[in-house]
Request: fold
Amino acid sequence: MKKDVKAFLKTKRKTVDYRPVPERLKDYKEVAFIPGPELSKEQSSRCMDCGIPFCHWGCPVGNYIPEWNDAVAFGFWNKAFNLLDETNNLPEVTGRVCPAPCEHSCVLGINDDPVTIRENELSIIEHAFKEGLIKPQPPKKRTDKKIAVIGSGPAGIAAAAQLNKAGHRVVVFEKDKMPGGIMRYGIPDFKLEKKIIERRIKLLEDEGIELRTETNVGKDYSSKQLAKDFDATILAIGSRTPRDLKIEGRELEGVYFAMDYLIQSNCRVSKEDISGQELIDAKGKKVIVIGGGDTGSDCVGTANRQGASSVIQIEVMPKPPECRIEDYPWPKYPLLLKVSSSHQEGVERHWAILTKKFIGKNNKLEKLSCLKVEFEKDSRGCPLMREIHNSEFQIEADMAVLAIGFLHPEHSGLVKDLNLDLDDRGNLKSDDNYMSSAKGIFVAGDARRGQSLIVHAISEGRKAAHSLDKFLMGKSSLPNF
Reply:
């Protein structure tokens, strides 16, 4: 089988199709189709096998992108999977939800559309599952070390998988009812169906990893007991303290944090019991989503599926450009206008809008009082926001969702019990080897670096696992990437 080495000159970028909007709004099934093998072979052939592949530099886990693209182009699917499996513990997740910084640093992207790297990755891993290439591989030899991983999100799962490969006994603690962290509770099924997470979790359990759910370490399981039972610990507890909008009317009924909304929606879709909670439902309501990022987009898609009468998304920052500007030259990850599948389903979007007040009657939200802002650069070149005089206006709203990010991990409970040092942003402080201020306790993911991408969390979990293994054994055979 031959590969056309000039395919990048002849073949244009083609992405997968989405299910029709009227159809997908009726359910929470994934909106995008899995790329078929022929499409993936065609698109992989666009990879130029360039002399200096910057996609490696753009990928936080250092995926062997040109190598597995080449393998797919030739039809060597087993080889492609083996290469992918070496660097990424959750390619079925990143292949669905990663914003693909690798594609923005693709050399072909300098003067053409980049290779469909993320979709090719998804095609490889789904082909591997379909063909039975992925089987449990418990370690042949066990050490006498026992490791606790606190948190079953992407950083915790990656760390646990790596440490298990090294032969250590690994127990993953999760305070929620089901494992998966933000992948399960923060991302809607229409982007990441939960059967995808369950498939990976079962594989890890079959390889010998123990998962203890509904166990809040520091409350249900004391930090003192943790030190007695385990030789070392990795904290991968995420960044779950939301950024609030402390303005007049914040206490009104109808104003919610985005994560509270998404978690409850995911629980309802999964038929988890939410009795005793206030029902957060957009049906028949005028919904305002405050925040223009991915979380805000997920709220838009959820509100439309719940039957909102209208959905408006507002963002305080100016509208991003649709193509690269001087501030973000190749191969940097650019600040670009993103139009997600949720936006395509129906939403009114506005930029450079500041919410000043929530207005209501009888303790129920009725309106948002807003104004327009503009940005100019100060003497250091940093953006400075200025309110535009006489630009005030109001938006009718029955429900407002705050999707404006997260501050830091929760400090109460385990973090306080362990008396861990924090950085100036409130994240868990660590040295270059991912060890916290307490000996033998390592930190990884959003809890250490702040709110970030799933692919960064996977990378940090892997690196923390390498450092922990080296700390216990004096050396480590695990990769440090």
The longest strand covers residues 364-377. DSSP finds 19 helices and 16 strands in the chain.
